[in-house]
């Protein structure tokens, strides 16, 4: 049976335009989906926008437009930005889509019918930024640690999802499945959160008298659903739950990619919601770290959001994407700076990769008129190439683009080193070494071809440019076939050209 790979990003709040954070997660998911598709999996990549709730209603009011007009505009901006950046989700879900609203109502009716929901009075401290009541432990000096604002005291009668009765089940699930939440530090964080006794049942409703901008509760139309109780279900509705039969097949291979800021809803609320509904758990929740800028939080109010379209304009999107995917170790935080972007472009892309291509093709033009010689190569780099390909697979199965790219660069470095040791310019001086010269250059050309294949998922604009310079059509077939060593045909006419990545001059 064909393997299923269904990857999701969080659905972003359309109260700000796409920035480095959402661009990072979306590029990451785009890379993984391309990779798994190349390997032959039936792949689906979902992203979208999370359009209900108080935060959005307030932002719309401030902008002087209706919530619907407000979210229409910004949601479109997300969609068109991903398109302009060459990110290719298969689905873009909006929580205002009628299909999604239907799925959400179906889901909560199911839980209501199963006796999982209770109507209760509640007084608590509500943080508008988080869109939820906070527990004592989530406050520092009486303030929300994330938003640094004092939550409001609120008393209401509301519907509660009896989540706490499932905490023991969840602890057991997480303990028995080390792959469920990765990297391990977040798995441990969730386990200690669950064991601490600080978690409670989940309030899933908001009275309409206070908030109208939401999906009505199917069993009480005096209320709308809490935005997280609406948003999480996008992962199901985005693949056709509950009416299209195909959603279950997709669901068998579902992996969620998020940042650490929304660990709790994804690692506690969501698995318990699924369990209570009798649905299978996700295959994996993969949690990356947070970008800061000059060691400051990235936020709209500080105006340091980093516009991906500006980055594209300045550096090209592939180089920026390379920086994002290479710089931050999976699960750890990273600090963004343009100096670091420039360093990565100059060192890794221009010096290592670009130079390998230029010097190899330069020598081929000098010694063989630019035509790929009829040679099987020396089979020196082929071993490195196959080890690298295997390791890339291991790293991407573990969701680490940073390690995967580091490993690909081992092949690039090995090829550069190989040129230095075999010194083709010396071989060229001796006519009796003509075959060796051909073999050495063939080896480097083939290493470049394999590198371009390995980079297809990470740098989708760059790989075709490398194939073009090598004088070949972009390869077809699945990854394993594309990687097979020795496919560069003799007689192909390579192209000299502009550097692949021009160096960026710095003072
Ligand atoms: O939380 N560094 O939406 P959101 C890394 N609507 N990633 C970042 C980031 C940063 N500085 N800032 C944002 C929501 N992100 C909810 C999600 S899902 C059912 C509902 C990325 O617009 C990262 O993926 O606040 C993070 O988890 C997400 O944007 C939060 O997006």
Sum up the structure in keywords.
alpha/beta, elongated, 507 residues, Isoleucyl-tRNA Synthetase, Domain 1, single chain, binds ligand ME8
Q: What would you note in describing this structure?
A:
This protein is α/β, with parallel strands linked by helices and 507 residues long. The protein has a domain at 337-482: Isoleucyl-tRNA Synthetase, Domain 1 (Orthogonal Bundle), CATH 1.10.730. The chain is built from 19 helices and 18 strands. The strands form five sheets. Strands 3-2-1-14-15-9 form a six-stranded parallel β-sheet, sandwiched between helices. A four-stranded antiparallel β-sheet has the order 5-4-8-10. It is elongated and about 90 Å long. The model has no long low-confidence stretch (mean pLDDT 96). The site of ligand ME8 has 19 residues, from helix 1 and strand 14.
């Amino acid at each position: 049976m064909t393997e299923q790979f269904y990857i999701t990003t969080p659905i972003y709040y359309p109260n700000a335009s796409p920035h480095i954070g959402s661009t990072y997660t979306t590029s990451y998911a785009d890379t993984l989906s391309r990779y798994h598709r190349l390997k032959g999996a039936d792949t689906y990549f979902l992203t979208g926008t999370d359009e209900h709730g108080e935060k959005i209603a307030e932002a719309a009011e401030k902008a002087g437009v209706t919530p619907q007009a407000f979210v229409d505009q910004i949601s479109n901006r997300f969609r068109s930005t991903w398109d302009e950046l060459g990110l290719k989700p298969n689905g873009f879900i909006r929580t205002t889509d009628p299909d999604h609203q239907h799925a959400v109502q179906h889901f909560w009716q199911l839980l209501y019918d199963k006796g999982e929901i209770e109507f209760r009075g509640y007084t608590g401290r509500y943080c508008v930024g988080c869109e939820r009541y906070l527990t004592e432990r989530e406050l520092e000096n009486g303030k929300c640690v994330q938003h640094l604002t004092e939550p409001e005291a609120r008393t209401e009668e509301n519907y509660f999802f009896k989540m706490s009765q499932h905490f023991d089940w969840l602890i057991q699930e997480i303990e028995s499945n080390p792959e469920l939440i990765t990297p391990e530090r977040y798995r441990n964080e969730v386990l200690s959160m669950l064991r601490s006794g600080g978690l409670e049942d989940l309030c899933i409703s908001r009275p309409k008298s206070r908030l109208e901008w939401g999906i009505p509760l199917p069993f009480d139309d005096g209320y709308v659903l809490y935005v997280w109780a609406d948003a999480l279900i996008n992962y199901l509705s985005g693949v056709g739950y509950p009416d299209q039969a195909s959603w279950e097949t997709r669901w068998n291979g579902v992996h969620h990619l998020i940042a650490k800021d929304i660990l709790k809803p994804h690692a506690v609320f969501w698995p318990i919601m699924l369990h209570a509904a009798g649905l299978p758990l996700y295959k994996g929740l993969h949690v990356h770290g947070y970008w800061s800028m000059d060691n400051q939080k990235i936020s709209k109010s500080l105006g340091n959001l980093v516009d991906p379209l500006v980055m594209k304009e300045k550096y090209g999107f592939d180089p920026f994407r390379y920086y994002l995917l290479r710089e931050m170790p999976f699960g750890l935080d990273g600090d963004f700076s343009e100096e670091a972007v420039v360093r990565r472009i100059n060192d890794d892309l221009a010096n290592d990769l670009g130079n390998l291509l230029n010097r190899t093709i330069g020598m081929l033009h000098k010694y063989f008129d630019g035509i790929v010689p009829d040679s099987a190569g020396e089979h020196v780099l082929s071993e490195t190439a196959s080890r690298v390909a295997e390791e890339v697979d291991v790293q991407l199965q573990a969701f680490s683009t940073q390690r995967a790219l580091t490993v690909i660069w081992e092949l690039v470095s090995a090829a550069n080193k190989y040129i230095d040791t075999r010194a083709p310019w010396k071989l060229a001086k001796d006519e009796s070494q003509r075959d060796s010269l051909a073999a050495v250059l063939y080896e480097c050309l083939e290493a470049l071809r394999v590198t371009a294949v390995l980079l297809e998922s990470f740098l989708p604009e760059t790989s075709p440019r490398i194939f073009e310079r090598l004088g070949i059509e972009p390869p077809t077939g699945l990854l394993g076939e594309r990687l097979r060593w020795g496919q560069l045909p003799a007689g192909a006419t390579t192209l000299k050209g502009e550097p692949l990545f021009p160096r960026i001059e710095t003072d």
